[in-house]
Every structure is written in C-alpha cells, then in structure tokens.
Amino acid sequence: MSHQKILILDFGSQVTQLIARRVREAHVFCEVHPCDVTDDWIRAYAKDGNLKGVILSGSHASVYEDTTDKAPAAVFELGVPVLGICYGMQAMAHQLGGKVEGGHMREFGFADVRARGHTALLEGIADFTTPEGHGMLNVWMSHGDKVTEMPPGFKLMASTDSCPVAGMADEARRFYGVQFHPEVTHTRLGAAILQRFVLQICGTRADWVMGDYITEAVEKIRAQVGDEEVILGLSGGVDSSVAAALIHRAIGDQLTCVFVDHGLLRLNEGDMVMDMFVGKLHAKVVRVDAA
Q1: Which residues are registered as beta bridge partners of 285?
Q2: pLDDT class for 173, splitting at 50, 70, 90?
Q3: The pTM of the whole model exceeds 0.85
Q4: Closest CA to 28 of 268, 194, 148, 139
Q5: Helices (H) and strands (E) in the chain, counts
Q6: Total structural domains within the chain
Q7: Catalytic: 183?
Q8: Co-location of 63 and 186 in the same domain
Q9: Active-site residue, from 163, 181, 248, 257
Q10: Catalytic residue, candidates 30, 35, 94, 183
Q11: What is the extent of the structural domain holding 137?
Q12: I want to staple 51 with a disulfide (CB 3.0 to 4.6 A). Which of 46, 88, 114, 196 is the partner?
C-alpha cells in the first residue's frame, strides 16, 4: 500500500524521534532522514507525489556558524508545507532572509507562550486565556539563539517576554516555525499542534498504523527478494534483530544470518541471540566466535 508521507529532517536533536512518534500517533507515515541530504535527493523523494510536508528538527548548533548544517534549499521550493521546530525555525529564518542572533541567556524549561495572529497552525489551540483574551500555551523551551528578524512574508505567530519571536508563519507558502518543542509531553498541546500540521495543513491521510507495518513490510520483502537468497549481518542489537525477524518471516530459509560474536557482548548474550533466532524463530544463523 502506498502511503502519503511526512519527511522529518534531523539536525541532531535528542528528541527528533519523538517528532516521528507524534506524527505516527496521528496515523500518518513519516521517515527521518539526515539534514544533509542533497537537493536532488529531496526532489527524487518527492517525485511520486506522496510527500505532503516537511518537518525540520531541533539541534544544539547555531545557524550562523559556517560549519552548521542548513536545510536543503529544495525543501522550500517543493510547494509543500514546512514546519521548523526550535533550530528548524532558526534555519528557516536564516535561509529565507531573516536574522538569528545569540541570546544573552539560554532558555530551558517551561514557558507560557502567547499565540498571536490566529494562524492556521495555532487557531483555537490554547491551554488557557488571559483576562485580556489572549490565548496562551504551556510549552517546553530549549534554546540559546533566537530569531530577531523574521524573513519577508512572515508574520508573528507566538511570543514570550524573553523570546519576542517564539513562532512565525508565512501562510501563503504554508511555512511555520515554533521556537518551542511540540513533540515533548511537557508541551501540553504539542500533539494537537503537530496533528494540526500533518492532518489539516498538509492534508495527509490518516491511514497508517504500526500494527499494519509488519504485513506491509513482509509483502514488500517477498516481492523484492523473489527466489533469491539473502545474507544479513546479525549483531543482536535492535536494528539488525528486527530486520532479521521481518526478513525471516517473509522468506524463511532463503535468509542466512551471520552473527559475529566479538567478545564484547554482555555475559551469555551471544547464547541468548542464538536461542532467540535459532531456538525460537528457527532461522539459519552462522555464529562466528571472534572473541
């Protein structure tokens, strides 16, 4: 089954995978890829028409440093909505003609953000309303630098006393940026904000659930492999173990796993790997004692 998808570009944030988790909880398929993919890669990724939006993750870096990663320019040329989170917003601002400067004090922890401008991203989303009628959000901040000048075409979407541009939006191009982290549970309505972006602004179908992934992956593997043989390096870690289990379910004895026991595993962990894959899954595993 072909799914519409969201692309998450990872700039190195510790919580990038949480962005993916929140998107998937909205039953939308997404993939995380490194931020340094090329413009050609971005265009090829979008070529099938299933890419509905892009999210730029946070980072520990500063956008104005020469060695810092930037978002591929093609991201802003695809015509799909883009959401920048923390550093992702700063990268968007910096690359589209705004200004980012180092802050005098790092902001880390809870903050009350005033939603402004009634943008499509934050319209009707608020934790509480002030006596003056201002919608407020309880969010989690983690940043040192901040946007001091928005790019042309952007308007103010959110602010705090210490961060005048805590959110910005160019609704004509459907570009949005937030300085806070909607993916963490500390931002109480963060999931609602991300769902608003992927489901309403991007218009992505909510047709992906994790429970169906195994069936889809098995069918895809069978079609790709056919009657060929597959060899897989099995370390016993999560990634190779999940890959081995999926491939074995798909093609059975056409798969041969090679487990190199290098002597650096936990006590008896090598035996546990063999017990799981040979004893329980009945997979073909060649164990190499390289201790």
Answers
A1: 257
A2: very high
A3: no
A4: 194
A5: 7, 13
A6: 2
A7: yes
A8: yes
A9: 181
A10: 183
A11: 5-201
A12: 46
